[in-house]
Design goal:
alpha+beta; 20 strands; Creatine Amidinohydrolase, Chain A, domain 1; Creatine Amidinohydrolase; 357 residues
């Protein structure tokens, strides 16, 4: 993955802060392309330094080209070294990832560094929300692995399997097809259990009704996120009506998504279609979230969202209807916002598929 330190330096230059402290594993990876469970990066408008311990030092030094890499011997020494660097640069304000730090961590930085801490979470969120061409290819690769695995899963599903068996089988297929890991715990919920949007797969055997599967693959640090709802046995008229309503809302979002559209409006579009079909109040979560190194990141499309879509965003499109005690339906793709519309990263079929009839 390309190092993004130059983009971050430019963002710091525009922000008004003298420097930015990067502490979360996800943002360290975005900055350097180097995965690690520890370390801190200080970025100014002119330079960047990664402070890291001996477990990662040699590899980091050989791989990272856009930041200086310094080895830290112990925690107490790290504050002394970082403080000296900040003094040398003349920094008075240090932007931090305030939403990623615990109160205790924030207090320790505030006490031990000779600068004023200011909010900086938005700086990295704004950068990561706009995907580079390389990031888009990584997301497409993750989606391809997940899609291939799902297609291989469908003919393997049987009534002898449990919800948990389905989730386990899909994970194995994704790993065999090139995933480094799952993007998140697979959701596999059947019949009345499918009315729980984030239900946990359990040992109950599959039976007639909807089978909703929400799954994703992680490849080279980037994630996919897809949901498909299958039907075990023939659907009732009500089930078909609900499924087609969700599909109508999902397709309408794809047609409407483009630069300049407010996330709140996109969410409202899907919600309005569902309400007009008689299911007002049964769409119980937000429409959309950004996708990348994290499965949930900026921008967001919800009733409370202040985000406006721009070229380069990758977002989910996942309306649903959930009727407690009966069933639930969710259909989800992830889409890339282009100059004039969007590109769907997922090419799995979306018409209602009946299995084990």
């Amino acid at each position: 993955m390309t190092e993004n330190i130059p983009r971050i330096r430019e963002k710091v230059r525009e922000s008004g802060a003298d420097a930015l402290l990067i502490t979360s594993p996800q943002n360290r990876f975005y900055a350097t392309g180097f995965p690690s469970s520890a370390g801190e990066i200080i970025v100014t408008a002119d330079e960047a330094v990664l402070y890291i311990d001996s477990r990662y030092f040699e590899e980091a030094r050989s791989r990272i080209k856009t930041a200086r890499v310094e080895q830290l011997v112990n925690r107490a020494k790290s504050f002394e070294v970082m403080g000296e660097f900040l003094k040398k640069t003349g920094a008075r304000t240090l932007a931090v990832e305030e939403m990623s730090l615990s109160h205790g961590q924030y207090t320790v930085y505030e006490k031990n560094l000779p600068v004023e801490l200011v909010p900086g979470q938005h700086l990295m969120s704004e950068l990561r929300a706009v995907k580079s061409p390389e990031e888009l290819e990584l997301l497409k690769n993750a989606q391809a692995v997940a899609s291939r695995s799902f297609l291989e899963l469908i003919p393997r599903i049987s009534r002898d399997m449990s919800e948990r068996d389905v989730a386990t089988e899909l994970l194995c297929l994704m790993l065999r097809n090139g995933a480094d890991d799952k993007a998140f715990d697979t959701i596999s919920v059947n019949a009345e259990h499918s009315s729980s949007p984030h239900g946990h797969p359990d040992g109950r055997k599959l039976k007639n009704g909807f089978l909703t599967i929400d799954f994703g693959a992680c490849v080279a640090g980037y994630n996919s996120d897809t949901t498909r709802t299958l039907c075990i046995g023939e659907p009732t008229a009500e089930m078909e009506r609900v499924y087609n309503t969700v599909l109508k809302a999902q397709l309408a979002v794809i047609d409407a998504a483009r630069p300049g559209v407010a996330g709140k409006d996109l969410d409202g579009l899907a919600r309005r279609i569902i309400a007009e079909a008689g299911y007002d109040g049964y769409f119980s979560h937000s429409l959309s979230h950004g996708l990348g190194i994290d499965v949930h990141e900026s921008p967001y499309c919800s009733t409370a969202s202040r985000d406006v879509l721009c070229r380069g965003n990758v977002i989910s499109d996942e309306p649903g209807i959930y009727i407690t005690g009966k069933f639930g339906v969710r259909i989800e793709d992830c889409i890339y916002i282009t100059d004039s519309g969007c590109e769907n990263l997922c090419h799995l079929p979306k018409e209602l598929q009946v299995i084990l009839a």
